[in-house]
Amino acid sequence: MKNNSTRNFSTKSFSSSSSSSPRWSEELIQYCEHPETFSANEVYHFDNEFVIITDKYPKAKKHFLVMPRKRIDGIENLKKRDLGMMKKLKEKGQWVIESMKGENPKLKFRMGFHALPSMKQFHMHVISQDFISPALKNKKHWNSFTTPFFKDYEEIENMLKEKEEIKFDKIYYETLLKKPLNCHLCNKKDIKNIPTLKRHLEDHWDDDSSEKSE
DNA sequence: GTTCTAGAAC
DNA sequence: GTTCTAGAAC
């Protein structure tokens, strides 16, 4: 088998010939601009104002991104005037959660935002709290959803009501991502490594009790 | 955001 | 020797 590396013609003049941000960070934008071009597995729902996609690398059994189709670069570019959009965003999120709970009442959800998102285009995570998924692979993945790095919807809405700008300290929030692995359901702290954490999460899912002794 | 992989940890 | 993490990616 050959390493066919001869595909050098630059395809698709995407938005960033002058911008310095890498292409991968802009991947969400196409879902907002052309939701109709994606399969139902990728785009769960869309209308004129919002798109709901299934996360390409889900970190739990159910993991969606809910986004306004209007271009908003990131959480730091939210303004007070977006409070109306936010309320509808929340309703979209709640709608997905209800739908998923209909499929499996055992699922618990949070909806919210990363303090320091990697992807452009403002997006809200709707993620089930089992965190059982092959795509959850490292400490950063874990801590981004289980430490204060994850901001619940209500917190952001309240911040926006109080201040015109939302800004999180980069240094501080990056340190949160390096914290030890602690269980989000029981008092187990400093879990040895990711494979051990994954077994622990499976146990929680199986016996459905949020208090584990081990 | 992911992939890949060197070398740390076990 | 194998498992696991964490940093580079031009």
From TrEMBL:
Top-level taxon: Eukaryota
Location(s), subcellular: Nucleus
Position of the signal peptide: none
Keyword Zinc: yes
InterPro entries in the cross-refs: Histidine_triad_CS, HIT-like, HIT-like_sf, Znf-C2HE
Keywords from the UniProt entry: DNA-binding, Metal-binding, Nucleus, Zinc, Zinc-finger
Occurrences of domain HIT (ranges): 30-136
GO-annotated biological processes: single strand break repair
Entry annotated with the keyword Plastid: no
Entries under Gene3D superfamilies matching the protein: HIT-like (3.30.428.10)
GO CC terms, sorted: nucleus
Pfam families to which the protein is assigned, alphabetical: DcpS_C, zf-C2HE
GO MF annotations in UniProt: DNA 5'-adenosine monophosphate hydrolase activity; double-stranded RNA binding; mismatched DNA binding; single-strand break-containing DNA binding; single-stranded DNA binding; zinc ion binding
Spans annotated as Disordered: 1-21
Protein name: 3734_t:CDS:1
